Amino acid sequence: MSDPRPDSAATVEVAGPIAAPSPFSVFRKPDFRLLWTAQLVSTVGTALTDLAAGILVFRETHSALSVGLMFMAVSIPTLIVGLVAGVFVDRYDRRRIMLIADLLRAAIVVSIPILIHANIALLYVAVALVSTISQFFNPANDAVLPEVATDEELAAANSWIMISSFGSTSIGFALSGLLATAFDISWAFYLDALTFLFSAACLAFVRVGKIEAEGDTSVGVVVENLKEGIATLVNTPVLRSLFVAGAPVFLSFGLWNVLLLPFAIRALGATEFEYGLQEGVTSVGFVIGSLLMARWADRLREGTWIVIALIGMGIAGVLYGLSTSIVVAVALVTVSGFLNSFSSVSRRVIMQRSTPRELRGRVFSAFAVLRDVMFLIGISLAGLADAIDVRVLVVVASLVLIGSGFATAFLPGIGRPAAEWRRAMSALRGAAARPTVPIAVRPPTLADFERLAGHLPALARMSDAQRSALLAASHVRDVAPGATIVTEGDLGDAAWFILDGRVAAGSPAPDGGYRALSTMETGDFFGEIAALTGSRRTATVVAEQPTTVMEVPAATLRGLMAVPELSALFLSKLTERLNRTNNADLPRFSGVDQASLRDLRTPRSGTEAGPAAS
Asked: Which parts of 62-184 fold into alpha helices (H)?
């Protein structure tokens, strides 16, 4: 953390680092408890329907392709209504959208037993309709979560949500297999309808802020909103890298999900109940992994968790494809489910932290559409199992995961290759004792602002007056490779935004090396802790390559806190970095209590207001 200012009587020395919030603290909030309970119960029913529908189709057709078509019926609606659904989620009451979606899904699911007696093809229609409605529910649910959990609770909150989802999935899968074996499988659909009704009852009591939409929801407005959501996904480096890393993974998952049933029955000679049990223990593994993430997610970068998960799942998948015993197969899919939680939780946290509140519905929906495109491609390849040994396809799908894991380690904003780490360490060790001030200093231009806003969409929410004030107060500096931008221990009077290039940050260690090493690239910022709190610099930052940065004075940065999206962004980074550093001496903001955060959110008057003036 930061050293206290020696000339300030207001500073307080703290005996140790900030304690990470308890992974259970989020349950103290009634709204989160209601969301979590609704998710827990409704997912049991959804798992019942998903597995029961697949079993019914396989009973009738004995074809892996037909099972794949069932998965396509679930995924295709995303392509048709997914993007549009995101626009509505960002323009209307998200809680009400979720409540209505639950009621509609209950009505459709309860009618499935009647439809399948008329024509099995109607099962595909019903499943597709339920999936269509879910395109409105899912992004609304994801967008609401950051509103009922603080940023430091977000990883734990996502872990618990995934626990409720996959833990109940294991129950639903096992129960569906039991119903298919010993009872009338129609009960799976009746129970699912009841769970949707229960979920709606819980959501009726959730309190979250409403989105205030500007103007009517005309076709033109919808189109413009779609463009803004897609542009945010494409132009935000970490979100773009997240999809590039995930594309082959989703393809592999699509193929894998369809192959599990024919593999269990054909290759392993398992019963339908054993297949359901296998699916269930996958979710058990996921729950155990999510419990670990709820407690330890902040120990590694989200990207590192994703790399570990993909490589581990791929290895487990290869062994699964070579297994001959259902017992061994069950153990391996449990391991795979355990590792999958690492990537799933990390992916959600990255998206929620990197997307402005009012854009979450569109960005999440756009990501889901692109995800399901790859998922559908994988599903379409499952038909090869009718002509090729299913073991071969399982192994191939698993090798794709391993390759994706290694590739993820090299993507900007997610992974950090060993060579990059060595370059960063070399730059830090060669840093000068004091910051190197480049000779070339110029005022920022509108093009500089637009370039930065392309990486930080929250800047686009500034008014013209705020933008002009920011440009007038700031400076752009071109920094040569190896030059020190800031030095640990200096009093902070500015924050820095990277327009182009890459920098390395680290704190000197007693042995002469550096600790808390991190690399930042275009669109990242640093120095906000010292600028906002008036404390000393917590790290030395050195340019790894030719780098262009925008220097924003502390008073101007405080003025930016008047923009809600920017306030949330800065406070998110501030609390995250304070919670992860180990210095013992802190300024008064070290506790990151709510009074201090409110103080930072309060716009300043006069010159301190900076771009907050309008």
From this structure: 64-89, 94-110, 112-118, 121-148, 154-182
Amino acid at 33: R
Least confident of 171-185, 530-544, 596-610: 596-610
CA-closest candidate to residue 478, choices 440, 437, 431? 440
CA distances 423 to 211, 315, 363, 504, 587, Å, are 45, 30, 34, 9, 32
b/e per residue, 381-406, with b = 16+ CB within 10 A? bbbbbeeeebbebbbbbbbbbbbbbe
Cα of 284 vs its chain's centroid, Å:
21
Tokens 């990255």 sit on residue = 350
Distance between CA 266 and CA 478 in Å, rounded? 64
Sign of torsion, CA 129 133 134 139?
positive
Inter-residue contact 202 to 37 (CB < 8 Å): yes
Query: Using an 8 Å Cβ cutoff, are 495 and 611 in contact?
Result: no
CA distance 593 to 558: 18
Say if residues 398 and 312 touch (Cβ distance below 8 Å). no
Q: Which residues pair with 525 in a beta bridge?
A: 497
**Domains of the chain, first to last:** 25-205+217-408 (1.20.1250.20), 423-612 (2.60.120.10)
pLDDT tens for 439-455 read 568 888 888 888 888 77
Spatial separation of the C-alpha atoms in residues 367 and 345, rounded to whole Å: 15
